[in-house]
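Below is how a single chain appears once it has passed through the pipeline. First comes the sequence as given, then the structure the pipeline wrote out for it. We keep one example in the README because the format questions we get most often are answered faster by looking than by reading.
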Amino acid sequence: MGHSAASRYCRPRLRHRRRRQSRRRVWADLDGFPDGICLDAEGAAWYADVPNKHCVRVREGGEVLQTINVDRGCFACMLGGADRQTLFIVAAEWRGFEHMISDARTGQVLSTDAPAPGAGWPG
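Resulting structure:
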């Protein structure tokens, strides 16, 4: 689970009997504001960070493995493509909540090679 305001990802602990969530444990404390997330086959997570204008690949514990800097806020990211090793980033200029509604059309889908393929479904 991402907690943008707390700059961290938590992993819920499950109770075995009914598979209900119990307490959460911190998966990674982050330097930034995580928004969209995707996971790769090496167990790392990519997260998009709007105000810092980048996507960051981290492993459990918070070690930064890679950072992709762009010229606008990153809202979401996903690993895809034929081999699932392309990182797609949804990005747009961000001027704050007070300017969310405007005629400016600055959104882009960016892509770059990723070091590991995506994990999970669809696979």
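Strands lie at 2-3, 8-14, 21-29, 34-39, 45-49, 54-58, 64-69, 73-80, 86-92, 108-113.

See the next section for the split statistics.
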